């Protein structure tokens, strides 16, 4: 089975991460899935921000959990990303130009609206960040928002347009309790001894190793498959690494460069 391409924070090599422009470009580039990180604002809104603080990716400063959505919306989350593309081919892939309405903080509600409008089997992989001040409230808010969009109770895990992910096994267990039919990914940057066999906690459906894990232990993908778990690998941009994941039988490849990754898979 050909791996599916998941745009890591959107087409984030070409557009500022976690912006509508990055996700729109990822869809133009043929990404089958989109990935985002979510955190809770002080007033209880889920926003797509990776870091605990907004300093790196905005014109403002502060910790997400101490800021209101209104305050975060006054800041620019686009202009910091002004790197030139690595090649002329990548320049051609930068077709989407962000508008003023796309420079503010992206809420998960807005991103869900984009995914629902697009349809066509696009999956959204939502990573809840931990540890955070609000603990399990993040998953509770996520499920409540999914329910508003009619996405919290899909007919089956394979049919779900949403996949929840976390490095926290507790968060994965909470999600399984709140929304049993939404598939889950347990992310990890190293394999603890109990999981080297490919086994996962009962609440986790997919294994989520970093690329370095597979470089150190290429047989892990096959062992996880024997236990009934497909593999989601992050973050894969180099064509040689894409081919490596393809040979191993990885199901989902998270990448900052969806077009390059798709092109690599198509040529092999």
Automatic annotation (TrEMBL):
Supply the Gene3D superfamilies for this chain: Phosphatidylinositol (PI) phosphodiesterase
What would be an example GO MF term here?
phosphoric diester hydrolase activity
Q: Which InterPro entries match?
A: GP_PDE_dom, PLC-like_Pdiesterase_TIM-brl
GP-PDE domain span: 3-265
Q: Which GO terms describe its biological process?
A: lipid metabolic process
Identify this protein by name. Answer: Glycerophosphoryl diester phosphodiesterase
Its ancestry begins with: Bacteria, Bacillati, Actinomycetota, Actinomycetes, Pseudonocardiales
